[in-house]
Amino acid sequence: MSSPTTPSNQHVYTLRELTDLMLIEERQIMQGGGKSAIARQHEKKRLTARERIALLVDPVTKESGATNFQELGLWCAWNMYKEHGGAPAAGVVTGIGTVQGRKCMIIANDATVKAGAFFPMTCKKIIRAQQIAMMAHMPLIYLVDSAGVFLPLQEDVFPDMDDFGRIFRHNAVISAMGIPQIAAIMGFCVAGGGYLPVLCDTLIMTEGSGLYLAGPALVKAAIGQEVTDEELGGASMHASISGTIDFKEKSDEDAIARIQSLVSKYREREEQAPTVPPLREPNDAFKIFTDKPGTQYDVKELIACIVDVCADRDKLAADFDEYKADFGQSIVCGYAKIGGHACGIVANQKKVTQSQMGSGQGGGKRVNMPGVIYDDSADKSARFIMDCNQRKIPIVFLHDTTGFMVGRDSEQNGIIRSGAKMVNAMSNCVVPKIVVITGGSYGAGNYAMCGRAFDQFLALAWPSAKCAVMGANQATGVLTTIEEASRKRKGETIDKEAHDAIYGAIHAGYTEQADIRHGAARGWVDRMIAPEDTRKELIAALEAANQNWDYSREFKTGVLQV
């Protein structure tokens, strides 16, 4: 699957084609270690990670149409670890699932992928899931079935701040925060990995599973003692002798039923208000969105596919109150309801707009290019973000930006000052921040619109999304110039053929890195979604965030440039 920025001699995919290709690839990733590995799991009378999750979460009813499991990090480790046979989805399934009517973070080792061993991206993926749960005070459910650290990559798994040990640190901190954690050992849980379930509040174990720091072979080698799996760390031993586990269950199905029963006994949740449909059909996103050079679209039309409908005098309209509609129009801000959840929306406008200049600025109007953040729109966005924090409502950021405006006029108008103000307000938010990258997300524009470094609650991306420090064409031009200058200093002659070869190689490499799948593989976005599912995905994200979010925290910023 190549992106719409591929060279002219290659096919440029439409958004619909990109979506279809993404869904095909995702079905392949979901196979984990493949059919033979799945068969081996079944031979052990065990379910796969995905089968366990499907049994655990509430069934979806036609009436609700809700998402009962919002998988996160499916693309993690995509095209990585090829020398080790790959690690589809990093060998672990994570996501927000509805269990007994309550949103829970579910983390399930996929034993069909290298026996559920931990790769570097496995650690990062689990840590990210724990962070999301901590933000929203969301219960965690761990379905444990893992051989521990993948030893050939131990130096990248074991020691650092975002590695294996951080998971256990989070287990302890989450418990101290009063967030419930349930672990079910449904296979083997060995070595350091044994600490994860024992650091949880409630521990379930199935018969035939094992929990020990060292297996029988290692025990014999280390101290010469011969023991069986059951004597060393079986469910009966831990239930009746060590007292480590709380519940012993016969099978995966029994363990899952126990989890459901325990979750049903948490404090009752408030009932959600019934939802209303959007003004425009979600599928209209394919008609509205475009990223072809020289084309535009009105992001307000896209917003109408996402937010609820409401009565506006004698007609229906999108439930969207646009904030400062005539000012700073290169970013659209407004208050909305999505699935009955109040929220703010900050969205890059992808059509040409105008800014009215004051008399001291020469009067007249300034033309604003699509997707570019100008000083007035950054000022407006900062003020709007602060007001959302005053109202205690989540903020949805819709990314499609090339970044901040550059040039003499922009600098003299204080673009750096205005951009810093927006970044300051966004960084200090005490409300959930949810991101959807629809098109470009470049440079400082990515930062100001709540990039990965800025405590996103969830980051979603369309298959058309691209993320990099700048666009491929601009970056390739700069990098080609640098490379050619370096070669000339070494005495090489750069003719047109050499120039084209250098340019083509650099462009291809940069385009590959800007492809959103490259970022998703490294955990820079949580979930890739089909455009027509954007509203449904945002409703699920808002439900998860609002379930237990601590809105009592005080909102304050540092010094703002004015």
Question: What's the helix count?
Answer: 21
The CATH homologous superfamily of the largest domain:
2-enoyl-CoA Hydratase, Chain A, domain 1
- Structural class category: alpha/beta
Largest beta-sheet characterization:
8 strands, mixed
| Outline type | globular
Share of residues in helices: 25-40%
Terminus-to-terminus distance: 46 Å
The level-1 CATH class of the largest domain: Alpha Beta
Uncertain parts: none
Q: Please indicate the count of domains.
A: 3
Which architecture of the largest domain per CATH?
Alpha-Beta Complex
Count of DSSP strands: 22
- The average pLDDT is 92
Rg of Cα set: 26 Å
Annotated CATH topology of the largest domain: 2-enoyl-CoA Hydratase, Chain A, domain 1
- By oligomeric state, this entry counts as single chain
Tell me the β content.
15-25%
Could you characterize the architecture of this molecule?
It is a single chain. The protein folds into 3 domains: 36-263, Alpha-Beta Complex (2-enoyl-CoA Hydratase, Chain A, domain 1); 282-465 and 525-544, 2-enoyl-CoA Hydratase, Chain A, domain 1 (Alpha-Beta Complex), CATH 3.90.226.10; 471-515, no CATH class. 37% of the residues lie in helices and 20% in strands. Strands 1, 2, 3, 4, 5, 6, 7 and 8 form an 8-stranded mixed beta sheet that branches. 48% of the residues are buried. The mean pLDDT is 92.
